[in-house]
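Entry:
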Amino acid sequence: MTVDFDLFQGAARSTDADAAFPFRLVLGSRSPRRRGLLTSAGYRFAVLPADDAVEEREPLDGLSPSELVDRLAFVKARDVVRRLRPLVEPQSSPVSPEPNETTALRQEFNAIFGASNAPFVVLSCDSVAVCDGEILGKPADRADAERMLRLLSGAEHEVRTGLCLWATPGDRVLRRVEISRLWMAPLSEERLASYLESGLWEGKAGAFGYQDGNDWLRLTYGSESNIVGLPLAALADSLRTLAAEIAPSKSR
């Protein structure tokens, strides 16, 4: 496996937002929306996505929407932590990345965080839309996106996001699920066709992006950032909890 250095370009530099956090934050996601939210909130972080195959290997049948996003956020974080093990526990990692990857990761993290021995905290998320009991993930194709949007048209639905923070070394894990509710105005055939043609539905749970500024979506409960895929208030609260636990053993 190789390291995609372009993924590190989203790292926010030192700001007041993370000054009190005694760790190095790693976003375990390829999502440009989550990267943008972290950057706009002032966090300093690196990006190291989980292997795409971790979701395919995970048995998910029979899970409720909250259980599903919680589980997927957890397994993504676990995969990223696996890749970080050689950097923090080189003697105890039974499965290590290739030596070249370990060296490359160390260099990139040093470029972002400086020569630090602070613990890593991996942040992973997963989001789905839920309408009439049906879980709506990312559409497989345009036809699937159209089916989802017709289901959501004129209805209220939920967006559930699983948030997982995993500190390593130490393996302290915090998990929570945040819920927001949206109402989607009835979509005319013309508006539906236009949105499908735009391609903005691609890669988005429920086949829509709240951040796209559509006037046919209205928040009725919860946070906007949760709908985009990263609940910032819940993240800040969880990071403060971890910081309080990690601070006593912070490396000097």
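Residues 171 and 181 are 33 Å apart (CA to CA).
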